[in-house]
Design brief:
By secondary structure, this protein is an alpha/beta fold. Helices cover about 45% and strands about 15% of the residues. It has a 7-stranded parallel β-sheet, sandwiched between helices. Strands 7-9-11 form a 3-stranded mixed β-sheet. The protein has a two-stranded parallel ribbon with strand order 8-12. The relative contact order is 0.13.
Length: about 350
């Protein structure tokens, strides 16, 4: 099987690529990534020379390139993760999110359709990986299910909602075999340090302020990235065509409580006085359209496909903190931008 994984040099994508390359030696895995600031090939050093792995630098917004890749590689399946994904950046620059997340997705759909329709889509699959943010916001109670109406509140979530709808449209209009998953917030190794958890860990280490939006009461469900990779693997192989599966960690935290836990965890790991890091917490002006609460009902994927998260919250948070503290060179290369030279060094 020849599988195109888009965005495979990103945080979630690199974990998925590693899993697929190692678990399925008979599959040919092609990792397509534009290598924006969030793409880091150093995350995949351990598999870059595997015989079943190929990296291609490219942009999904380039329709001609997408057609050429499908023609050259004759992909059997696509697992599409490539996306602009940071809410704050989408507020500052919505057009790049519209171009990548919407137009890029359509380019992939068209390229796949042009090649696959000749075979009647036999043995093909287009898997679109999305977010729970498309559902909008929840009150104090309730959970997002696969039937929750879409209600995106940011340019990022609106662009992902649009791409979800387009993928479903190609299923209903053209008969393309598709599957979609919507996941909660991921955490774990190799996450770009603009995101909350690595940002907090790094700032604690360097005794910098820990910025918390508003009153810190915003609630998110957190999913260990390794669990998400196994969930994608499960949906890819077992999911029914045309279906959506919500992937969650059963792990809800208010932002302020999560940061306090990280503070005490990192203080302990660094041998500091417990409570020292909490003195760095700083409340900052809230961002526009901030969703109050996300929470995933992952019953469907458990009941129908047999997947559920394996990593417990306390274990995952401690392991994540330890990884960032142990991998100071990785963090320094990312924060300095030095990691972006890796492609030129290895692939030129």
């Amino acid at each position: 099987m020849k599988i195109l994984i888009t965005g495979g040099a990103g945080f979630i994508g690199s974990h998925l690529v590693r899993l697929m390359v190692n678990k399925y030696p008979d599959y040919q895995i092609v990792n397509l990534d534009k290598l924006t600031y969030a793409g880091n090939l150093e995350n995949l050093k351990d598999v870059e020379n595997a015989p079943n792995y190929t990296f291609v630098k490219g942009d999904i917004t380039d329709a001609e390139l997408m057609q050429e890749l499908f023609q050259d590689f004759q992909f059997d399946s696509v697992i599409h993760l490539a996306a602009e994904s940071h809410v704050d950046r989408s507020i500052a620059d919505p057009m790049s999110f519209i171009t990548t997340n919407i137009v890029g997705t359509v380019n992939l759909l068209n390229a796949a359709r042009n090649i696959w329709k000749e075979s009647g889509y036999e043995g093909k699959r287009f898997y679109h990986v999305s977010t729970d943010e498309v559902y909008g916001t929840l009150g104090e109670t309730g959970l997002f299910t696969e039937d929750t109406a879409y209600d995106p509140r940011s340019p990022y979530s609106a662009s992902k909602a649009s791409s979800d709808h387009l993928v479903r449209a190609y299923y209903h209009t053209y008969g393309m075999p598709i599957v979609i998953s919507n996941c909660s917030n991921n955490y774990g190794p190799f996450q770009f340090p603009e995101k909350l958890i690595p940002l907090v860990i790094n700032n604690i280490k360097h005794k910098k302020p820990l910025p918390i939006y508003g009153n810190g009461k915003y609630t998110r469900d957190w999913l260990w990235v390794g669990d998400h990779a196994t969930a994608i693997d499960t949906v890819f192989h077992k999911g029914a065509n045309g279906e959506t599966y919500n992937i969650g960690g059963n792990n809800e935290w208010q932002n302020i409580d999560l940061v306090r836990i990280l503070c005490d965890t990192v203080d302990g790991l660094l041998g500091r006085r417990v409570g020292e890091a909490q003195e760095l917490i700083t409340f900052v002006k809230d961002r526009p359209g901030h969703d109050k609460r996300y929470a995933i009902d992952a019953t469907k994927i458990k009941d129908e496909l047999g997947w559920e998260p394996a990593v417990q919250p306390a274990e995952g948070m401690k392991e994540t903190a330890q990884w960032y503290l142990d991998n100071t060179e990785w963090m320094e290369r990312v924060t300095s931008g030095a990691y972006q030279q890796y492609y030129e060094k290895q692939y030129s």
